[in-house]
Amino acid sequence: MKKIEHIGIAVHSIQESRGLYEKLLGTNCYKTELVASEGVNTAFFKTGENKIELLESTDEQGPIAKFLAKKGEGIHHIAFDVEDIFAEMERLKSEGFVLLNEVPKKGADHKLVCFVHPKSTGGVLVELCQEITENNG
């Protein structure tokens, strides 16, 4: 794993939370994106090399809606940038971690993503991210 790629924060409304995070971070949202396959709207903020992703559910039965109902707004996941997502998935499986998907999916911000089950990571939902290129996407 190369670095923390971003921290994902579940919110009830990106529109309502956007101003808060713009003031908090001292920067504007640089990108919003609908990820229909995951049932979320996203908004990204960057300060230095650090990124924050706000996640708003578009599906009442989706994972973000369920997270919000159970825990309320707050940190949803931590994402790590990886060199080779396929190799990293195999490494983690061989170490006994449980992956939530068998193959990477297209996620927000032009990334291939895979989630690691929080039951195998001490309660933290971990996302692996790799930039989509013509060789892997």
UniProtKB/TrEMBL annotation:
<dbReference type="GO" id="GO:0046491">
    <property type="term" value="P:L-methylmalonyl-CoA metabolic process"/>
</dbReference>
<dbReference type="InterPro" id="IPR029068">
    <property type="entry name" value="Glyas_Bleomycin-R_OHBP_Dase"/>
</dbReference>
<dbReference type="InterPro" id="IPR051785">
    <property type="entry name" value="MMCE/EMCE_epimerase"/>
</dbReference>
<comment type="similarity">
    <text>Belongs to the methylmalonyl-CoA epimerase family.</text>
</comment>
<dbReference type="GO" id="GO:0004493">
    <property type="term" value="F:methylmalonyl-CoA epimerase activity"/>
</dbReference>
<dbReference type="GO" id="GO:0046872">
    <property type="term" value="F:metal ion binding"/>
</dbReference>
<keyword id="KW-0479">Metal-binding</keyword>
<feature type="domain" description="VOC">
    <location>
        <begin position="3"/>
        <end position="131"/>
    </location>
</feature>
<dbReference type="InterPro" id="IPR017515">
    <property type="entry name" value="MeMalonyl-CoA_epimerase"/>
</dbReference>
<dbReference type="InterPro" id="IPR037523">
    <property type="entry name" value="VOC_core"/>
</dbReference>
<dbReference type="Pfam" id="PF13669">
    <property type="entry name" value="Glyoxalase_4"/>
</dbReference>
<protein>
    <submittedName>
        <fullName>Methylmalonyl-CoA epimerase</fullName>
    </submittedName>
</protein>
